[in-house]
Amino acid sequence: MPVDFIGLIATQDGSESSPATTPLIDPRYTARIARAHEDAGFDQVLLGYSSAYPDGAQVAAYAAAHTSTLTYLVAHRPGFVAPTLAARTFATLDQFTGGRVTLNIITGGHDVEQRRDGDYLTKDERYARTDEYLTVLRRAWTADTPFSFDGRFYRFEDFVSQVRPVGGTIPLYFSGSSAAAYATGVKHADVYMFWGEPLAQIAEQIAAVRSAAADAGRPAPRFSVSFRPILGPTEELAWQRAEAILGRIGSVTAPRFFRNRDRDDPANVGSQRLLAAAAAGDRHDRALWTATAKASGAAGNSTALVGTPDTVAQALLDYHDLGVTTFLIRGYDPLDDAIDYGRELIPAVRAEIARRDAAELVTAA
Questions:
Q1: Coil, helix or strand for 175?
Q2: Among the residues of 70-220, which ranges form H helices?
Q3: Angle 78-59-187 (CA atoms, 0-180°, nearest 5)?
Q4: For the whole model, what pTM was predicted?
Q5: Contact (Cβ atoms closer than 8 angstroms) between residue 267 and residue 295
Q6: Ranges 24-33, 49-58, 129-138: which has the least confidence
Q7: Over the range 228-246, which residues count as b (16 or more CB within 10 Å of their CB) and which as e?
Q8: Which residues have C-beta within 8 Å of that of residue 31, sequence separation ≥ 6?
Q9: Secondary structure (3-state) at 352
Q10: Fewest CB within a 10 Å sphere: which of 17, 304, 306, 363?
Q11: Residue 73's beta-bridge partner residues?
């Protein structure tokens, strides 16, 4: 199975463990970190979403103009613009970037954060709206003739778009760990994304999504898992660095994007699962470390893989053995870590998968 690597870029530096030193929108830094990911061999980079953060589609357009092969996974929340407008927006961006756009659909798990943009629906209502939204989005990208829609959340007549994605559609990445998320995600997702949990828990989530897909009569999506690798030239140095990062989490005024909106009692199931793993112990499996999730309130993907590049590569391969084909990896030192991942970690994982694929071909012959 081939493997894809996704990083994360932002318009300013900083993270939960390192203070920002640039303005919120720094064009030079944005171009630099995008090029660093491209040079490091990443396939894509995620642009996150919050009610206070710069618009991802515009950031992607700027960064794409400064790179040539990198794809931009734009986080997008259904419900704040009409799906017909979103279809044209992202198809236009896809055309200008030469087909280098994917979408990360964020239904929203924090009621307070949703309300900052004026959304007062319940969680289950948001997933129902996402279902309608993505149904319209897909059809808007492919319909040759005008169509109408009369749903619970959206209603329009005689819509047809003259702008289409380069490849006919745009891949959709989906996340969420609740039953409502699974039911909606399997209907639309090309890739289903999880945060970095222990191997047994990821296997359970993969099985749950595959079961939901089978119940819906649809093929299962591909799977992605997100981690925060902390590398060192030796195991001891990697763990020393990890402890130093942990000591800074909480003492740094992180950019708003990284702050958990309800860290003491997170409403979203994904954060609850990370905190449950952390409560069971700081270390899991080969290299998974959950102390960073506990310290940050499980604000997004916050669990680390700690060790030498070889150790972390083997840990990623353990997840690949479960059926994971995409890894979102981002560091606590975003720019420097992206460069480091490209030196040894990404090549090591790809080399081992290529070796295994070649061995399987020989065996099959």
A1: strand
A2: 83-96, 111-116, 123-142, 179-188, 199-215
A3: 30
A4: 0.95
A5: no
A6: 49-58
A7: bbbbbeeeeebbebbeebb
A8: 62, 63, 66
A9: helix
A10: 363
A11: 46, 102
| Torsion from C-alpha of 244, 247, 253, 258, nearest 10 degrees | 80
Residues in CB range of 304: below 8 A, 6 or more apart = 196, 227, 228, 229, 230, 242, 245, 288, 289, 291, 292, 332
Q: Indicate if the pLDDT at residue 94 is higher than 90.
A: yes
**Residue 306, amino acid:** V
The closest of 246, 232, 252 to 18, measured between CA atoms, is: 252
User: What distance lies between CA 211 and its chain's CA centroid?
Assistant: 22
Helix, strand and coil in the chain, % to nearest 5: 45, 20, 35
220-254 per-position pLDDT tens digit: 999 999 999 999 999 999 999 999 999 999 776 54
The number of C-alpha atoms within 13 Å of 76 and in the hemisphere containing its C-beta is: 30
DSSP 10: -
CA atoms within 13 A on the CB side of 219: 5
pLDDT tens-place string over residues 34-43: 999 999 999 9
| Predicted confidence band of residue 338 (pLDDT cuts 50, 70, 90) | very high
The secondary structure element, H or E, covering residue 272 is helix 269-280
Q: Write out the two tokens for 124.
A: 């289950």
Helix (H) / strand (E) element for 192: namely: strand 191-195
H/E stretch holding 34: helix 27-40
Count of Cβ atoms closer than 10 Å to residue 151 Cβ: 14
Are 298 and 197 contacting, i.e. CB atoms less than 8 angstroms apart?
no
Residues 6+ apart with CB under 8 A from 9: 30, 33, 34, 37, 45, 46, 47, 59, 63, 334
